[in-house]
């Protein structure tokens, strides 16, 4: 179970019990997200800065810098980026560890490699891309993301922009270098407490502003706009998708279903991957939080270097001949009425992670309304079942494995002759901005399965 799940329960209680907000509304989800992420990020910030401060008291900054800056200095960027891959934080959640690296004396370029890799690449992306596009594309995505993180860190390191980091970040390194080896455990603990409180005191307002912006735009994806103006035949599609992605805010699991829907609608894979990378690695809330620890010029340099890497990767993908995998067990709805067997029962399931994006919430709302409006007899006879399932809950692990659901996804299971016919439907993701089309599409699909 997610270690932050108790915080989610608390955020739900505040949002829906104390504030009495209606579930599944955009405003309620924004408030819920703000409460959850605020608590989570402040916990991360406190724990990581405290832990790094203790460790740093034993390792002078000069020693850390020497280890990472000698012959194999680029290995430092590679190791930091690899650490980012196995720490699946969103861009705002990754900042506490990034700040801890800087405070510990790790070279600035190395810390940026971590900051880029952590939100951009994680195991959720690998599993979902593996299921949609196959092993080749999933591995290319991981390798390209790793290359962007290393490249960005190396370039920023060579620019020697330490003077663009706020002075308070480096001040404590000097103190620690002089006194670290003489401190007792009590002194180390007290130093870590004071230092952690001092950092939080400096950045708390910017964190709240950043999370607030994230709550307002969390999960919003202009899918129809991208499909219309960033199609495969337009040379400017990759930079346009990258620019559109920067002001938005979501995690990889919340964006990948949109990637699949856009790809099916004709948008080139490199374009949608560039969009996803920009959303996860270059978010406006992240910039707001970074503003307190670095000058605007450095944030612009960071965004520019990473943006160029993302655009380059997008064009590389667009030059490759790629097709999405066909579902292994696709439900046949294109047969004639006489050829089809009527489903005995249909299960319509919306799977989601604890932190739901706007698109996932909308799909659940529209799907439930469609079933209730058009299939009352089937509901009454228990021939159709609609459920929204949180895959993060332990009691839902078995059904998530059965449907091979990872993150936000929409599945229909037509039970025929007692046999499951499970198929994921990605088309619904591109219909979320048109309620009438969504409901008509789903109604017709279910009617076909019932052989109506």
How would you portray this structure in words?
The chain has 2 domains: 5-318, no CATH class; 345-449, 3-Layer(aba) Sandwich (Glutaredoxin). Strand 3 and strand 4 form a beta hairpin. The chain has 20 helices and 4 strands. It has helices spanning 5-18, 26-58, 61-69, 73-85, 91-103, 108-120, 123-133, 135-158, 167-179, 185-217, 223-229, 237-245, 252-264, 269-281, 284-290, 296-318, 358-374, 376-380, 397-403, 435-449; strands at residues 345-352, 384-390, 409-415, 422-424. Strands 2-1-3-4 form a 4-stranded mixed beta sheet, with helices on one face. The relative contact order is 0.11. It is mainly α.
Architecture blueprint of SSEs:
Layout: H1 5-18, H2 26-58, H3 61-69, H4 73-85, H5 91-103, H6 108-120, H7 123-133, H8 135-158, H9 167-179, H10 185-217, H11 223-229, H12 237-245, H13 252-264, H14 269-281, H15 284-290, H16 296-318, E1 345-352, H17 358-374, H18 376-380, E2 384-390, H19 397-403, E3 409-415, E4 422-424, H20 435-449
Parallel strand pairs: 1-2
Antiparallel strand pairs: 1-3, 3-4
Helix pairs in contact: 1-2, 2-5, 2-10, 4-6, 4-8, 5-6, 6-8, 6-14, 7-8, 7-13, 8-16, 10-15, 12-14, 12-16, 13-14, 14-16, 17-20
């Amino acid at each position: 179970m997610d270690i932050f799940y108790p915080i989610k329960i608390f955020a739900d209680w505040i949002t829906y019990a104390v504030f009495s907000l209606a579930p599944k509304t955009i405003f309620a989800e924004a408030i819920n997200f703000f409460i959850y992420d605020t608590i989570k990020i402040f916990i991360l910030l406190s724990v990581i800065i405290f832990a790094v401060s203790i460790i740093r008291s034993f390792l002078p900054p000069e020693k850390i810098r020497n280890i990472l800056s000698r012959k194999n200095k680029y290995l430092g960027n590679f190791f930091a980026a690899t650490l980012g891959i196995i720490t699946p934080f969103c861009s705002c959640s990754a900042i506490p560890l990034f700040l801890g690296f800087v405070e510990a004396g790790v070279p600035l370029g190395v810390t940026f490699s971590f900051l880029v890799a952590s939100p951009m690449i994680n195991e959720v992306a690998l599993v979902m891309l593996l299921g949609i596009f196959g092993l080749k594309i999933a591995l290319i995505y991981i390798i390209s993301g790793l290359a962007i993180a290393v490249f960005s860190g190396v370039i920023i390191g060579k620019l020697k922009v330490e003077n663009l980091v706020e002075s308070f970040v480096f001040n404590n390194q000097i103190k620690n270098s002089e006194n670290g080896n003489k401190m007792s455990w009590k002194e180390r603990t007290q130093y870590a407490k004071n230092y952690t409180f001092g950092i939080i005191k400096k950045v708390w307002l910017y964190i709240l502003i950043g999370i607030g912006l994230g709550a307002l735009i969390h999960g919003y994806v202009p899918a129809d706009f991208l499909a219309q103006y960033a199609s495969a035949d337009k040379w400017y599609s990759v930079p346009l998708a990258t620019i559109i992605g920067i002001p938005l805010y979501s995690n990889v699991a919340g964006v990948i279903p949109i990637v699949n829907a856009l790809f099916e609608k004709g948008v080139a894979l490199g374009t949608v991957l560039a969009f996803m990378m920009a959303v996860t690695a270059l978010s406006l809330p992240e910039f707001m939080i970074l503003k307190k620890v670095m000058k605007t010029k450095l944030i612009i340099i960071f965004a520019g270097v990473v943006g160029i890497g993302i655009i380059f990767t997008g064009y590389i993908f667009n030059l490759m001949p790629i097709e999405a995998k066909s579902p292994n067990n696709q439900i046949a709805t294109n047969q004639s009425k006489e050829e089809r067997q009527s489903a005995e029962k249909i299960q319509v399931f919306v799977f989601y992670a604890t932190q739901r994006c706007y698109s996932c919430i909308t799909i659940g709302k529209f799907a439930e309304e469609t079933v209730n409006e058009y299939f009352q007899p089937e509901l009454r006879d228990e021939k159709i079942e609609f459920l929204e399932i949180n895959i993060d809950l332990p009691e839902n692990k078995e059904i998530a494995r059965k449907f091979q659901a990872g993150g936000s996804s929409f599945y229909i299971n037509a039970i025929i002759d007692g046999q499951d016919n499970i198929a994921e439907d990605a088309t619904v993701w591109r219909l979320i901005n048109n309620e009438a089309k969504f409901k008509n599409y789903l109604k017709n699909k279910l009617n076909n399965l019932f052989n109506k």
